[in-house]
Structure formats: C-alpha cells, structure tokens
Amino acid sequence: MATYGSKPAPPSTDKRWKLVDATMRKAGGHARGLIETLHTVQEAFGYLDEQALCYVALSLRVPLSRAYGVATFYHFFTLKPGGRHTCVICLGTACYIKGAQHLLDAMRQTLSISPGETTPDGEISLLTARCLGSCGLAPAVVYDQEVAGKVDTASLRNHLEKWAHHDS
Amino acid sequence: MTPEELVEIKQNELDAQQGIPQRINVCVAAGCLSCQSDAVVDALMREVSRRGHGGRCKVKGVGCMGLCSEGPLVSTHTGHLYQHVTAADAGEIVESLDAQPVTRLLASTDMPFFQRQKKIVLENSGIIDPERIEEYIARDGYRALIHILTEMTPQQVVAEIMASGLRGRGGAGYPTGLKWSTVAKAVGTQKFVVCNADEGDPGAFMDRSVLESDPHRVIEGMLIAAYAVGASEGYIYVRAEYPLAIKRLRTAIRQAERLGLLGADICGTGFKLRIDLRLGAGAFVCGEETALIASIEGRRGTPRSRPPYPAMAGLLGQPTLINNVETLANIAPILRNGGAWYAGIGTEKSKGTKVFALAGRVCNTGLVEVPMGITLREMVFDIGGGIPDGKQFKAVQTGGPSGGCLPAEALDMPVDYESLASAGSIMGSGGMIVMDESSCMVDVAKYFMDFCMTESCGKCIPCRVGTYQMHRILSAITSMTAIENDLKTMEQLCDLVKHTSLCGLGQSAPNPVLSTLKYFLAEYKAHVGEHRCIAGVCSEKAAV
What we know:
The structure holds two protein chains of two kinds. Chain A is an alpha+beta fold. Chain A has helices at residues 16-26, 34-45, 50-60, 64-73, 93-97, 100-111, 153-167, and strands spanning 85-90, 124-129, 141-143, 146-148. In chain A, β3 (141-143) and β4 (146-148) form a beta hairpin. Chain A is elongated and about 55 Å long. The model of chain A has no long low-confidence stretch (mean pLDDT 91). Chain B has helices spanning 3-18, 30-33, 37-50, 90-96, 112-115, 133-138, 143-151, 154-164, 176-185, 206-213, 215-229, 243-258, 289-296, 325-337, 339-343, 376-383, 417-422, 441-455, 461-478, 484-500, 504-508, 511-519, 521-530; strands at residues 22-27, 57-62, 74-76, 81-82, 106-107, 192-197, 233-238, 274-279, 320-324, 353-360, 366-371, 393-398, 404-407, 431-436. In chain B, the strands form three sheets. Chain B has a five-stranded mixed sheet with strand order 2-1-3-4-5, with helices on one face. Chain B has a five-stranded mixed sheet with strand order 11-10-14-12-13. Chain B starts with a helix and ends in a 14-residue tail after the last helix. Chains A and B meet through α2, α4, α5 and β4 of A and α2, β10, β14 and α18 of B.
C-alpha cells in the first residue's frame, strides 16, 4: 500500500496503466486532471472499476469519495463493463418526435433489458443518448460505433439478429 | 508569421486550387458520415485516378452543406448539388463533369432552403476542407487576427465588438462586447478565455457542425477574444459525444501552432495564447458557466450562485471570458468587415444572423443560417418546406428544455431574442423542432421535464424536487389519472421552480410546461377531464 505523499504503484503490470499515468503527468499530478484521467481509464479499460478509482484518487491525492462522486455525476462514465455490442438509442427531441420511444420499447421486448443494462450473456448493452446531434436523420441509433439514421423497429430487430447470427 | 507570409500562404493555396479545374466536394460532417459519405469520397477518388484525371480533378471532404436529411451530399465546381449519393454513383458523377449533370441525383439549389439563408458563421462550411489550415487562410482566415495584433489596441477590438451589437449565441443573449469589456477591465494574475462547446440541448447540432466544418474559425475567434481581454490561456470545453469535432479541433490547434498563429509570441507581437481541450462527460448542466468552470477544474459540474460572475472570478478564481462556439465564430468576420457592417444585419436589438438546427416533422431538416428577424413561418414553411405527409402544423419548439412550444398563431412572429421571450419561449442555442398533429403537447412537456429532472444536478432543492414533482404530475396526466387540481398544483410548482432555482437549468425548466399550458390548454383538459389524448399518443396503460 502506498503511503500518502508518494505516487502509488499501478494496480497491475497491464500496459494500459501507462496511458493513465501519462494523462496524470500531463495534468501535473493535480486534482484538476481528475476528469481527464477518468476519460483515459474508461477509454483504455472500457469502464471504471473500484481498483481504477482507488488508484486514480490516490495518485491525484483526492478523496476516494470525490473520485466516486465525479464518476457517478457524469453520465458518460460507467462503473460496469459493457456488452460485446452496444446499441445506443438517441432520445433527443427530434428523435423522440419521430418515434425513438418505439425503438426503445422494441429493444425492451426483444432483449428484455432496460437502458443501462446488458443482456445476461454479456452480448448486448442498451444505452440511450441525450442527443447525438444527428437530428436530420432522426430517429438515430448507434450500433457499436456506427451511426444509423431513420431507423425503424424492423431495421433495429434486423440488426440485433445480425449480431446474434454472426456470433453463432 | 507576418502579414506578408499570410498573404503568401493564401496566394499559394489559391494558385494550387486554380491549377485544378474540376472539383468534387463531399460532405464529411457527422450527418453525412453516418450515411457512409466516407465511402463516397473513396469511390470518387478511385474513379478519378482510374480515369487518369488526378491532375485536373480534385475530390475532397468538406464540412456541412446544410441539407442533412438528404445526405450524403456532393457538390461539384459546375454548381450542381447531388443528394443521396452512394459509392456506386461515383463513376457517373466523375463522368458528368465533362458532360450533362446526373439528373436522378440532383438536388434543387434554387429552393428557399438555400436562397433564404445568409451565411456568416457557415460561410466556409461545405466549401473548405476542415482539416487543412491553408484552405481556411485562402478564405481570408486569420487575416482579422493579424490585423488586430498589428494595428489595433485591445480597447479598439472591444469597441468594434460592442458596435457590432453581437449577443451571446448560447441562448441568453448577453451582449458580447459588454462581457468582453468587463473581463478586460477585471484584475487578476492571469486571465482565461473559454469556449463553451458543451452543446447540450437535445435537437441542437449547430456548434458541432461549426466545429466539424470550420474549426479554425473558432480558434481565431478565441485568439481575438484573448487579445481583447488580456488572456493567455484558453480552453475549449467540448462534449465527449462529439468525437469528430474533437479530432478536427485537435488537428486545427496543431496546425495553428505549427504556423505560429497559436502559442508563444504570436506574429512576433509578444501576444501569447495556449489552447487546450477539455472533454465534457455528459452532464447537461455543464453548459451553465459556473458548472462548466467546476468541470474544467476536475470537479462535479454543479453551479454556484452568482455574483461573483466568471468575468470577475471564474476559472481558478481568475477573470474568465466564456463564449459559446457560434459567438466566437462570428468574431473574425466582424473584425474583417467592421462592427457597423454586422450591425446592419438583423433587427434593432438582435443583430446579425443565427444558425438553427431545423428538425422534427418538417420536409427539409438540416442546418440553416438566417438573418435575425425572419419569421417562424418563413423558417418552417419556406426554408423547412412545410410539413410532410399532408399533416397539419401544430407547434415549433425553440430553446430545447429551457424553451417553449409556440403554436400556429405565433408563426408570424419575428425570430429575435425579445419576441421569442415575450411569447414564452427563448432563442436558446438554436434547436428548432417542428411538430405536427401527431405530437401530444402534454407528452412533449413530459419529455422535457424528464430531461430536466434527470439532468438536475441536485444542488438546490427547488430544481431537484420541483422537477420531480412536475414530472410526476405530467405522468399522471398522460396516463389519464390526474385530477383537475393537479393542473393548479403544477402551475404553482412552475412559478416556484422558476423563481427560486439556483441556475438557469431550474429557472427555465418550467418553460415547456408553461408554454404548452398557455397555448395548448385544451389538450391538458382533454386528458384530465375526458381521459382522451387528442393526438392519440397517450393511453391509460402508457404510464411510465
């Protein structure tokens, strides 16, 4: 266990911690770099676990409560690992007016999960977005990293089936 | 970088462009990219080189052309605009440059959507390659910066912005010149300039589009602002949800630094500015300036009470100028053409142009820039092309969750800060969502209240609890379980939340409810009294 005042050792020999350390160094090891560091952790590991939060908090000398507070305050950070695929349904105004709610209902029916949840087999995570800014293409959905516009329930189900099919 | 060197870069770029007679521009802003416009660029490039036309035809990716719903969009030097282009059309398009246009893909450019616009902020969008600083310079980019650094005092720059009548484009409409002069006069060991690119309103994508299509314009605006107020450090606070905008900003900052337009001792004048990006992490409230500052400082984005305003005590307690992306994008043209030129556009109190993201139930959705004072009717029916599928117009929503829904009676109202506010909405950042008869206005009010409730940071009680209570009542109304008295309770809650909340989020959260109560009371009454939803959206089992 590192003592207060000295820089703690990374939780493991995983090379990705070097990226995290680099971000903290760039911020001068100052508490101001907390959000940037959490961004780096999430980008490298996919989510923020307790170990990562403890390490970052200790390194930047902020109370763990503050690191946890920041991690849970911002919607972008997630404390749970995501599924192999992610489906983000945009719930911006334009998408809502054009029926994004039906897409959400269809997801709920097909996969029996709610926004923020992952299917029990760890395959698909369902997320919602406040607005992707692709309002001209409403309703919009992001399949993994790819934005699809003018989505309807049929094409949504199609895509989910394609994911399931490719895995078999 | 001296003025002469800048002119040289401009001339070299123009010569290079003129050396290539044929040009094909493909929109690679996020809207068209999500319709695979990158594949169109590749296919066009392949076609051009396959035909051996590399020396006389240039294919390049450009920023937003506006008509996002018809993407991917492609324009040619012959003045033709093609819509819904796929990679398979590449051959035909390249061939058409020496023959007749491809009629089956042609978009009409003489429709009001294009003709009624006046482009200042978007003057380079869809024309230049956003990833090349030379193209920005070729369109007079950074000329204003060098001019003010070499020939104007900071006071003169502030005076010019004052004269332009420019007001904050983030929504509140505070006079930009006044803000600049406050920061310029403030005393501190260091001053900061911050670009607010945390475009949070759902249904708004103006700032993203500007950053993706013409990032140098924002950087030049920040440089001029920093010179005027005496700042030496700048931050762009941009949403993490805009990866393309972030990438292009990073490229632009690097390019500007390389040319000595950013960094230490800019143009040998001793003026210095460093610009860093800070990524937001998905909190709507961080668009509020004191919350934004907290977020840049690595804390939870909770607002604090003002005064002191950030102009006196902002980032790290130092005087800080915070301007929105679109505001900063207006700066360089104002200094190039003079404040009086800008003040000649728009209405008496709302000068210049405004960029709107037109979306919802309207034929032409996309990005438009219009002079202030244009009527809502012109926006929806001329530029927007009216309502599709023969449906009836019901409302237009401006200002996102802080704005209101305006009915058909308000269509002839001019779009300016005062008119929109007096009708119960706000200018907001520029989202404009059109709704037809298939939208239930109570459901829409519930949608926005759900947004405000979820995004409330929880610091002050009126907002945290009030939005929850209002959402509960709206849910009861849409599930047909509300009673007459609930409407009265909600009105009281609106009043309370509006007047006692700490920041703009809470103070404006009741606006969607108040405006729908004012203009669409009959819909509320039908839900409560007759258990009926006029639009057919809500049903008794729809309670969530």
